[in-house]
Automatic annotation (TrEMBL):
<keyword id="KW-0812">Transmembrane</keyword>
<dbReference type="InterPro" id="IPR000537">
    <property type="entry name" value="UbiA_prenyltransferase"/>
</dbReference>
<dbReference type="Pfam" id="PF01040">
    <property type="entry name" value="UbiA"/>
</dbReference>
<keyword id="KW-1133">Transmembrane helix</keyword>
<dbReference type="InterPro" id="IPR030470">
    <property type="entry name" value="UbiA_prenylTrfase_CS"/>
</dbReference>
<comment type="subunit">
    <text>Interacts with CtaA.</text>
</comment>
<feature type="transmembrane region" description="Helical">
    <location>
        <begin position="125"/>
        <end position="143"/>
    </location>
</feature>
<feature type="transmembrane region" description="Helical">
    <location>
        <begin position="97"/>
        <end position="119"/>
    </location>
</feature>
<feature type="transmembrane region" description="Helical">
    <location>
        <begin position="225"/>
        <end position="242"/>
    </location>
</feature>
<feature type="transmembrane region" description="Helical">
    <location>
        <begin position="286"/>
        <end position="307"/>
    </location>
</feature>
<feature type="transmembrane region" description="Helical">
    <location>
        <begin position="248"/>
        <end position="265"/>
    </location>
</feature>
<dbReference type="InterPro" id="IPR006369">
    <property type="entry name" value="Protohaem_IX_farnesylTrfase"/>
</dbReference>
<comment type="similarity">
    <text>Belongs to the UbiA prenyltransferase family. Protoheme IX farnesyltransferase subfamily.</text>
</comment>
<feature type="transmembrane region" description="Helical">
    <location>
        <begin position="31"/>
        <end position="50"/>
    </location>
</feature>
<comment type="function">
    <text>Converts heme B (protoheme IX) to heme O by substitution of the vinyl group on carbon 2 of heme B porphyrin ring with a hydroxyethyl farnesyl side group.</text>
</comment>
<keyword id="KW-1003">Cell membrane</keyword>
<dbReference type="GO" id="GO:0005886">
    <property type="term" value="C:plasma membrane"/>
</dbReference>
Amino acid sequence: MTDASLHIPAPAAIADEASLRDYWQLLKPRLMSLSVFTALVGLLVAPAGVHPFLGATSILWIALGAGASGALNMWFDADIDRVMKRTRKRPIPSGRVAPSDALALGLFLAVLSTVMLGLTANWVAAFWLAFTIFFYTVIYSMWLKRTTSWNTVIGGLAGAFPPMIGYAAVTGGTPVEAWLMVGLIFMWTPPHFWALALFVKMDYHTARIPMLTVTHGRDETRRQAWFWSIGLALVSLGTAVSGIGGPLTLLVAVILNAVFLKGAWDMWHRTDADSEADGHAVEKGLFKWSLVYLFAHFAVFVVEVALGPWGGW
């Protein structure tokens, strides 16, 4: 699936002056918002609490670190973004921002965010932030994404670390509760993105990205999504009986996973003809529910903390 010539950018007319909105889009604000939300949850559920100023500045640096990852990803992926329908209007492939500017912005934010997080919080959190940026940019974007169908599985770790970084910013450590939050996002990522890949398959074919739908077909993708959904449910229930969970988390987890598993089961037992006939309704439904799932699951962790002695086991 690899092709060295694929990464030679096509000539593009660069606008005389990019707007602030263009540079904001380079940071992948939607991905950044997910990182900020899960990092904030990690920070809030950490024991002993955190000073508001320390909490706010830590989240700021984590957000900038996530933005650095986005800018570096867009810099490297400009060639494949240019041929994919859903990405061709991004700032670099559309010619609004020069690749060199995106690279410079990404590197600057990467250094700034990790150094400042180390100085204002601690160097354990800074290490994991730096590792996350490296993992997303080098391990995922430059290697896994273009070479193997494991890109979604292994690459999903990059998006799973923010809650642990938030937790470490408060405690300076990464106990089992922090890793359970990492595990929850890690297990959630494959079925979430495979549901998406099932209804944007031709984009990945065009860009020659070895997503599971391209390398192993849709039937295998549906089957894998089901088994990963089972693993997700198990990790989810594990968080409910941990130090960050409680009876409310268990109740919410049971409801969220029942709907998720039903959607994954229905998706597994569909054919391509079924999907085409109803406009990929089940796949799109599972993708949308996965967003609700992650938000609700992490939100309930915060509610458990807010309940104090009234919550928990």
